[in-house]
């Protein structure tokens, strides 16, 4: 009960401390001096080495994604040495007995060769696949961290947009990689993709012919996906990651609020030597974990699936996890189809695939702008929000996660049915409703929890920390004295902004003439703003804190018949 | 035990060696009497009569006193001896309780008892007989023939049983069971009799040598080592699960550890 709220610890360095000693730069000698005289590296290097990064475990989630990407590049280079992106049919004559003599594409044959006959080939293949899984997962949790702490707010909206593009492009990178080995599972995934393209009304058939160079499966798709997977998409990803990190350096890293931390400074450790060691060490940890995963846990055992044959299919055909929610949406969607004139509208695929993904990524991209429009907040933010201090945003985030998670479960409905002894149909029907009801319930519960936490913070600031000591007064009343909070904790609990909901502005003046007002607030926007921040608990004011301190000193909180004003706390 | 009483050990040795001899004899008997031999005598009327008596005790409450079927269970006229042998030897019948599908469980009947009931059910109407082991013998197949069995498996079986033979879901709580550790005889019988939700594959669709190739492939799969923990062999769903739990979960712990260490000891 008396545990104090976490306060961001003080770190020894502020970014604002930058000794401007010009003479120090010129003393570099040796090769560095040679480079400095030509490129001026000392100045850049000094700035870079003294760059301060704040310390919090959740700031390393993006680094997991970055390091997985580096591992993907390294292992991918190894794989390209052996992989042959060709759909030419050949007979397998390698060392895996159970497929010997079968006709298969050269792509699958080279994957088998890579797995069984190249030294370390299977290990590298498994590391590559695990790294892809980790890359997408790390990007996702990184994005959730950014979302829940409001780190996408001005001036970082552009970086958020780059992140959304990175996320969707990486999904395509993963999808193309999944299709390359040309085994039964990847071929089934390719068939799914083909169906999804076909379901796009009017242009779908044309696009499908364009992508596959004719009828499915044709003989071009592997080579085309290979080009996209190893050249086109990684090049764009690299460029965007570069921009993402350049903007990170330019904007400076956000930090959690705490004493000594303001919108104008960054409290943390300098790049050299502290952060370099931490980040560099973390790279090796990520690499090590991936190698361990690749060495001990089998992934995508293509030889079990066999060569792709459009006439075959296997139970439990699923995409990798990042496409699982789309797979789930398709699985739980009722089979609706319309025929209008010569066109077929496959709603059962088009809605859960193209429309759902379109809505999802568009809402992600638009969210920073929508939020700032709703709150009317146009200021810069370098201090992060504690999730409880933005209850509606946190609620929306959890609702989104619930929606995603339920669709995700839908993607594995057969595994859930067999392993938990449930009926496949029951799981599907449950999800059909839960996908809509679950997010609403999650939103309400999360928002209520956030508001309760805000109330608890407020109470803690006003009345201090519960001491756990019960005192009986001479006239028989029981009370519990409260210990006053430390100054630092009180600051941390009260530093955030309380958004006042926007009020509707009149659009006509007293003469009934329309006012041209660029800051006009429509009724709809005002209602939205009230819904967004109208329930937030007021931050205790200076006067309230002083009053409460005075009140607490003269009359300790009585347990029977609390003397605090209920209207104040529970409004 | 080394410090125990030698006299006592000597007195216990006699009954123990007797039991050992009995167990050995029994095992030898069980090993030497093949179940097929029981089925081979299925024409004898005594066996049918004994089978009928057993049937009326263990099966008739659902399948009817004469195997004609009730609202609880289907008619067994014409299902054949192979069907009975499969259902009972794999423990699926008698069912422990009514349900969508009888799961595989430990069989508590002897081969002799099953043979008697098989003979009785076979006498109700013609159906697939229990096969001779030569019909599904895969020991002489070449690598290429076994690989062809894999193709046949992926064409005919993997849609329900999964490419790695780890099983899959069917509608309304039904399922296709995993095939690891299933006797070749039972695989053959299942293909021919179509138990539970499984379709019947007649000899015209899948000849005996093809079943042998499929069995050879499945037995080959069991021998193959996996590249690390199989994670259930269920494909991307479990891979994603482990990627999140071990990958993201583990690295988050590392991240907490790294950031909890300051540059200076405080």
From TrEMBL, chain A:
Coiled coil: none annotated. It is found in: Cell membrane. It is a multi-pass membrane protein. It is an enzyme of class 7 (translocase). InterPro entries: Cyt_b/b6_C, Cyt_b/b6_N, Cytb/b6-like_sf, Di-haem_cyt_TM. Residues 31-257 form the Cytochrome b/b6 N-terminal region profile domain. One of its GO terms (biological process) is respiratory electron transport chain. Residues 258-452 form the Cytochrome b/b6 C-terminal region profile domain. Keywords: Cell membrane, Electron transport, Heme, Iron, Membrane, Metal-binding, Respiratory chain, Translocase, Transmembrane, Transmembrane helix, Transport. This is Cytochrome bc1 complex cytochrome b subunit. It comes from Propioniciclava flava.
From TrEMBL, chain B:
It comes from the Bacteria. The keyword Metal-binding applies. Its EC number is 7.1.1.8. Heme c 1 binds at residues 59, 62-63. It catalyses: a quinol + 2 Fe(III)-[cytochrome c](out) = a quinone + 2 Fe(II)-[cytochrome c](out) + 2 H(+)(out). Residues 46-125, 144-222 form the Cytochrome c domain. Binds 2 heme c groups covalently per subunit. It is a multi-pass membrane protein. GO terms for molecular function: heme binding; iron ion binding; quinol-cytochrome-c reductase activity. Keywords: Cell membrane, Electron transport, Heme, Iron, Membrane, Metal-binding, Repeat, Respiratory chain, Translocase, Transmembrane, Transmembrane helix, Transport. One of its GO terms (cellular component) is plasma membrane. It is an enzyme of class 7 (translocase). The keyword Zinc-finger does not apply. Heme c 2 binds at residues 157, 160-161. InterPro entries: bc1_cytC-su, Cyt_c-like_dom, Cyt_c-like_dom_sf, Cytochrome_c_Oxidase_Subunit. It is found in: Cell membrane. The chain crosses the membrane at residues 241-260. The cytochrome bc1 complex is composed of a cytochrome b (QcrB), the Rieske iron-sulfur protein (QcrA) and a diheme cytochrome c (QcrC) subunit. This is Cytochrome bc1 complex cytochrome c subunit. It comes from Propioniciclava flava.
């Amino acid at each position: 009960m008396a545990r104090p709220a976490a306060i961001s610890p003080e770190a020894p360095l502020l970014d604002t401390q930058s000794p401007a000693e010009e003479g120090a730069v010129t003393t570099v000698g040796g090769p560095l001096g040679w480079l400095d005289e030509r490129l001026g590296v000392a100045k850049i290097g000094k700035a870079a080495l003294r760059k301060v990064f704040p310390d919090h475990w959740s700031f390393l989630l993006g680094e997991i994604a970055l390091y997985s990407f580096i591992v993907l590049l390294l292992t991918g280079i190894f794989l390209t040495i052996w992989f042959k992106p060709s759909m030419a049919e050949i007979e397998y004559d390698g060392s895996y007995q159970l497929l010997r003599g079968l006709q298969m594409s050269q792509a699958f044959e080279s994957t088998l060769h890579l797995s069984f006959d190249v030294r370390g080939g299977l290990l590298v293949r498994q590391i590559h696949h695990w790294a892809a899984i980790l890359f997408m997962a790390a990007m996702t949790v990184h994005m959730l961290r950014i979302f829940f702490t409001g780190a996408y707010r001005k001036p970082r909206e552009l970086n958020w947009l780059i992140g959304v593009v990175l996320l969707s492009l990486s999904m395509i990178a993963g999808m193309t990689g999944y299709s390359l080995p040309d085994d039964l599972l990847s071929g089934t995934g390719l068939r799914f993709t083909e169906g999804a393209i076909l379901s796009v009304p009017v242009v779908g058939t044309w696009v499908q012919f364009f992508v596959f160079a004719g009828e499915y499966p044709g003989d071009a798709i592997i080579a085309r996906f290979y080009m996209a997977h190893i050249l086109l998409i990684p090049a764009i990803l690299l460029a965007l990651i570069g921009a993402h990190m350049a903007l990170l350096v330019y904007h400076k890293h956000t930090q959690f609020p705490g004493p000594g931390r303001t919108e104008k400074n960054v409290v943390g450790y300098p790049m050299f030597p502290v952060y370099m060691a931490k980040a560099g060490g973390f790279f090796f940890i990520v690499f090590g974990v991936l190698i361990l995963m690749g060495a001990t846990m089998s992934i995508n055992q293509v030889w079990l699936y066999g060569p792709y044959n459009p006439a075959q299919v296997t139970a439990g055909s699923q995409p990798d996890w990042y496409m699982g929610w789309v797979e789930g949406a398709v699985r739980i969607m009722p089979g609706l189809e319309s025929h209008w004139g010569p066109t077929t509208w496959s709603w059962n695929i088009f809605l859960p695939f193209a429309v759902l993904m379109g809505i999802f990524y568009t809402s992600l991209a638009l969210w920073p702008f929508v939020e700032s429009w709703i709150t009317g907040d146009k200021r810069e933010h370098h201090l992060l929000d504690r999730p409880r201090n933005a209850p509606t945003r946190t609620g929306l985030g959890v609702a989104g996660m619930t929606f995603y998670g339920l669709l995700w479960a839908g993607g594995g409905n057969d595994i859930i049915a067999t392993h938990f002894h449930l009926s496949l149909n029951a799981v599907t029907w449950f999800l059909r409703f839960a996908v809509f009801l679950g997010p609403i319930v999650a939103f309400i519960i999360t928002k209520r929890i956030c508001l309760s936490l805000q109330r608890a913070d407020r109470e803690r600031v006003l009345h201090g920390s519960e001491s756990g000591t019960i005192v009986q007064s001479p006239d028989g009343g029981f009370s519990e004295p409260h210990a006053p909070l430390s100054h630092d904790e009180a600051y941390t609990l009260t530093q955030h902004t309380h958004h006042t909901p926007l009020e509707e502005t009149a659009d006509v003046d007293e003469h009934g003439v329309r006012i041209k007002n660029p800051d006009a607030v429509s009724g709809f926007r005002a209602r939205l703003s009230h819904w967004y921040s109208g329930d937030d608990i007021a931050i205790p004011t200076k006067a309230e804190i002083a009053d409460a301190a005075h009140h607490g000193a003269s009359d300790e909180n009585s347990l029977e018949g609390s003397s605090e004003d209920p209207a104040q706390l529970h409004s | 035990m080394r410090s125990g009483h030698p006299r006592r050990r000597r007195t216990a040795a006699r009954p123990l060696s007797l039991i050992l001899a009995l167990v050995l004899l029994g095992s030898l008997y069980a090993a030497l009497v093949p179940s097929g031999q029981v089925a081979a005598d299925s024409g004898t009327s005594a066996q049918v009569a004994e089978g009928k008596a057993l049937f009326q005790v263990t099966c008739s409450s659902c399948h009817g006193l004469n195997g004609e079927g009730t609202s609880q269970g289907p008619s067994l006229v014409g299902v054949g001896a192979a069907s009975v042998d499969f259902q009972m030897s794999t423990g699926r019948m008698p069912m422990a309780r009514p349900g969508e599908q009888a799961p595989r469980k430990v069989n508590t009947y002897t081969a002799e008892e099953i043979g008697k009931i098989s003979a009785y059910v076979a006498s109700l109407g013609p159906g697939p007989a229990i096969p001779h082991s030569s019909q599904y013998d895969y020991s002489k197949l070449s690598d290429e023939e076994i690989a062809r069995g894999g193709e046949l498996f992926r064409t005919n079986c993997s849609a329900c049983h999964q490419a790695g033979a780890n099983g899959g879901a069917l509608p309304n709580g039904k399922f296709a069971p995993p095939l690891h550790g299933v006797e070749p005889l039972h695989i053959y019988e299942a293909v021919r009799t179509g138990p539970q939700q499984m379709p019947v594959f007649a000899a015209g669709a899948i000849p005996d040598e093809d079943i042998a190739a499929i069995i050879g492939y499945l037995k080959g799969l069991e021998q193959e080592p996996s590249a690390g923990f199989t994670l259930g062999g269920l494909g991307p769903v479990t891979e994603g699960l482990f990627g999140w739990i071990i990958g993201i979960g583990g690295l988050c712990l590392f991240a907490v550890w790294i950031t909890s260490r300051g540059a200076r000891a405080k």
